[in-house]
Amino acid sequence: MAIKYWDIRTIDPAAPQRLCEELGLPALAGEVLCARGYDTPEKAQAFLQEDAAFGDPFSFRDMDKAVERVSAAIENFERIAVYGDYDCDGVTSTALLYSYLETVGADVLYYIPDREGEGYGMNCGAVDRLAEQDVSLIITVDNGISAKEEIAYAASLGIDVVVTDHHQPPEELPPAVAVVDPHRADCPSGAHNLSGVGVAFQLICALEGDDGGEMLDYYGDLVTIGLIGDVMELTGQCRALVKRGLSRLGESERPGIQALLEVAGIAPRTITATSVAFGLVPRINAAGRLGETEAALRLLLTDDPEEAAALAQQLEEDNRTRKEIEQGILREAESLLARNPQLLYRRVLVLSGKGWHHGVIGIVCARLVEKHGKPCILIAEEGEEARGSGRSVEGFSLIGAIAGCKEHLLRYGGHTMAAGLSLAAKDIPAFAAAIEEQAREMCPLMPPYALHVDRVLDPSRLTVGEFAGLSCLEPFGSGNEYPLFALSRLRLEQVIPMGGGKHLRLRLSKDGNGVFAVYFGMAPEKFPYQVGDVLDFVATIDRNYYNGECRLSVKIKDIRLSSLNQKKLCNGRAFYDAYRRGEELPIEKRHVTPSREDVAVVYRYVRGQRNLILDYDLLYSRLVSKEINYCKMRIILDILEELGLVDRRGDGTLSLAPASGKVDLGSSAILKNLQG
Q1: What's the CA gap between 165 and 122, in Å, rounded?
Q2: Paired residues of 498 in beta bridges
């Protein structure tokens, strides 16, 4: 796993004290706020405002038109259809608006398109089916902004449409009775960080003439899950809604939410934005990913505790199946990379496979980006067509790169960090080549995968009391991520396997202060560090309750030798990738051409190890005193392998090859090419 770039934020040393004195904040909370740019009492107060306004619903363009049409439909007992989406935001949006309309006596039904059979958004076949049920008004939630043709078709059948959405609108808005979307150019609401459920919530507030306070008591649980599920930025109005909603979630009167909390193992006192994001959201999404969306919606709507328990268990099983499918695709993707190692040197990893489930490839993408440190697009081949999902790294606009390849695509959409696309299966190679060229033009040197570190801490500050003060910054999530802390120059004292050998518990120390840290997903045989190594690591640090006792939980996100120069490492990786792609190097060739002594230094080090775990970043760190840059080191390993002196085995280790007599370094084609 590639070592990540640590972006350690800097602050004015005097700023935290000012915040703490004027706002009464705990010390560590003040430091984190300053690190994130809230470095004055005014900025910090604006961020922390717990009673921030939930927004004026009539500040949304067309909200008055929407209220007028929906109110008329309710009063005249017209049949209304809530047209939703199959992801967590779409399901909670549908449940919220359907529940409200049913409560006020409307004649209402819901419709969610099948992910595999219909895909996202409105379609004319669905409009026909709703027309057959005498629907005269469709209200979209979490979709509709791009449904120009479908809405026009509905109008031709005598069906009005009110759009509530939060996606970017096209140049021409659809011909709906009302289009409520905060991203409209003429919308003054400023509520750009609301998801579909947030916009639907604003609609029911407008219908009720409520400022959000009362409606949030009834629907705050659904709003909170949907906003977190769509990874909306937890600042401003969105933060206020989620913070209020989280306080209501454990007391939800919906049997479905109580059942979901139970199967996810979330106790009321442990409900946070994080536990919702990793406990509730995946289970709701799993139903949609596997084509069982209605089960998730029924769970949120049912009044029957027994039905809720059964549906929650079904979602639990769906989530388990989703994980199995995800692991299978991940194994296949890694196998493709192992068989075609040249792919690893591309700026953007593009992998495709037959039979891959389109509903989970986005999750697998995120895992590959984290592991390999570069943008990734996975494409599921479905006969003659294919659908893909991509994830990026900060500093590289994935949607910008994809847009530059539109001649190879049927459809595409998304944003800087994530995108989706569809294309003819036969065009996958051409698309892969095109996006690589786009990436080369956009970023001659690709940005590294970065971790934003809020503070570097001394181990002496790792106390329950110190970290209790961070609770005032909650809820944590997108736009207000859980703080990351770095600890430096700790000696590794002990490596303890846990979880049946799937994870590690490390004991480290510095200046007499001991630290226990957990490294999830790191098997003992893959851990490349040794007792006695002096290490730096980045971690999340939180309080954890066990047997009634509160303790700190330190979870490692990245780890490295303290001697590492990260700038040189990241540049060296980029140079080596360029070399393997056959591109002109951004530095003079002499800087990466090894001498006989350079080769000997690396060979002697490898020869002195037994079953060396093949971690290139770590190997570079251990050789840093030899003044061999990263790119040169990788080229030396290529030469040693070419000459039959080392083996890079499939189990991730580097070892000496069986001796076969004296080897002539001058016979290396790699070295000749560099010298020539």
Answers
A1: 12
A2: 503
Closest CA to 486 of 163, 5, 106: 5
CB atoms within 10 A of CB 182: 22
Sorted by where each starts, the structural domains of the chain and their CATH numbers stand as 5-48+451-561 (2.40.50.460), 57-211 (3.90.1640.30), 342-441 (3.10.310.30), 566-675 (1.10.10)
Its pTM stands at 0.85
| Helix ranges restricted to H, 59-172 | 63-75, 88-103, 124-132, 148-156
Residue position matching structure tokens 């080549």: 433
Residue 6's Cβ-side half-sphere holds a number of Cα atoms within 13 Å equal to 24
Using pLDDT thresholds of 50, 70 and 90, give the confidence band for residue 179: very high
More confident residue, 593 or 585: 593
Cβ pair 392, 448 in contact under 8 A:
no
Distances (CA, A) of 592 to 2, 154, 616, 631: 21, 65, 16, 6
Rounded Cα distance, 20 and 29, in Å: 8
The answer to whether 108 touches 74, Cβ cutoff 8 Å, is no
HEC sequence for 216-235: HHHHHHHHHHHHHHCCCCCC
Return d(Cα 235, Cα 193) in angstroms, integer: 8
User: Residue 98's Cα: distance from chain center in Å?
Assistant: 29
In the block, tokens 């090894």 appear at: 594
Environment class of residue 13 by beta-carbon count within 10 Å: exposed (0-12), middle (13-18) or buried (19+)? exposed
Output DSSP code: residue 266.
-
As given in the structure block, the two tokens for residue 433 are 């080549």
Contact 528/618 with Cβ under 8 angstroms? yes
CA distance 316 to 649: 38
| pLDDT score recorded for residue 551 | 85
List, as one string, the DSSP characters of 28-59: HHHHHHHHTT--SHHHHHHHH-TT-----GGG
Mean pLDDT of 355-382: 92
Decide: helix, strand or coil at residue 414: strand
Contact 349, 374 (CB under 8 A): yes
CB 430 within 8 A of CB 520: no
Number of CB atoms found within 10 A of residue 10's CB: 7
Helix (H, G, I), strand (E, B) or coil at 565: coil
Residues 6+ apart with CB under 8 A from 326: 360, 363, 364
| Contact of 529 with 544, CB cutoff 8 Å | no
pLDDT single digits (tens) 319-354: 999 899 999 999 999 999 988 989 999 999 999 999
Question: How far apart (Å, rounded) are the C-alpha atoms in residues 93 and 315?
Answer: 18
Q: What is the dihedral of CA 408, 410, 411, 416, to 10 degrees?
A: -10
Provide φ and ψ at 402, rounded to 5°: -65, -40
